[in-house]
């Protein structure tokens, strides 16, 4: 598996399966605009046969990096793909001399919280009612 920059052709490959196979909350059009945003950077996890099995992105506010999403294809979860993607985001943020890497995660999303804790992200706050159904977001940050 390799982690490479997301290209428009990658989006075409996953366009029809974004919601079903990745359960991502973003649609194709948001991604198209995001890969053209100079402050954003997106990566895909590709198998040797070029099949995309995950993706992740960061947005740079000038000082700090923010994880906008990180998703593994449903049939390939818990075999290390998000870990590889997250390592890429961490290394990329360090290369860009960012002070920190931050994200919001639903307080009920145990797999994601475990993933971030595995990489030493710390819980630094809560955003109340951030998601639908009044669910709270935990803010987690990794300082460099
Ligand atoms: C969260 C998510 C990205 C993890 O992806 P993944 O490729 O399965 O993660 P990995 O295989 O790299 O696992 C890394 C760590 O995450 C945690 N983890 C992953 N799946 C888990 C599960 N089902 N239950 C508990 N912890 C889990 C573990 O700590 C794991 O480390 P371990 O293998 O040493 O146990 C994936 O479940 C997903 O795509 N979820 C839907 C989208 C989402 O919620 N994204 C996060 C938004 S903030």
Walkthrough of the structure:
The protein is α+β, with helices and mostly antiparallel strands and 144 residues long. The chain contains five helices and seven strands, in the order βαααβββαβαββ. The chain has helices spanning 8-14, 18-21, 28-34, 81-95, 110-118; strands at 2-5, 40-46, 52-60, 65-72, 100-106, 122-127, 137-143. Strands 1-2-3-4-5-7-6 form a seven-stranded mixed sheet, with helices on both faces. A hairpin with a 5-residue loop joins strand 2 and strand 3 (52-60). It is globular, with a radius of gyration of 15 Å. The mean pLDDT is 96. Bound molecules: coenzyme A. Coenzyme A is lined by residues 23, 70-72, 77-83, 103, 105, 109-112, 114-115, 118.
What distinguishing features does this structure have?
single chain; 144 residues; alpha+beta; Aminopeptidase; 7-stranded mixed β-sheet; 5 helices; 7 strands; 33% strand; globular; binds coenzyme A
Q: Per DSSP, what share of the residues sits in E-state strands of 2 or more residues? A: 25-35%
Averaged pLDDT: 96
- Summed up, the domain count is 1
Unreliable stretches:
none
Q: At CATH's second level, what is the architecture?
A: 3-Layer(aba) Sandwich
Helix/strand order, N-terminal first: EHHHEEEHEHEE
CATH-wise, what's the superfamily?
A: Gcn5-related N-acetyltransferase (GNAT)
The secondary structure category is alpha+beta
Ions, cofactors, ligands: which are bound? Answer: coenzyme A
The third-level CATH topology is Aminopeptidase
Shape: globular
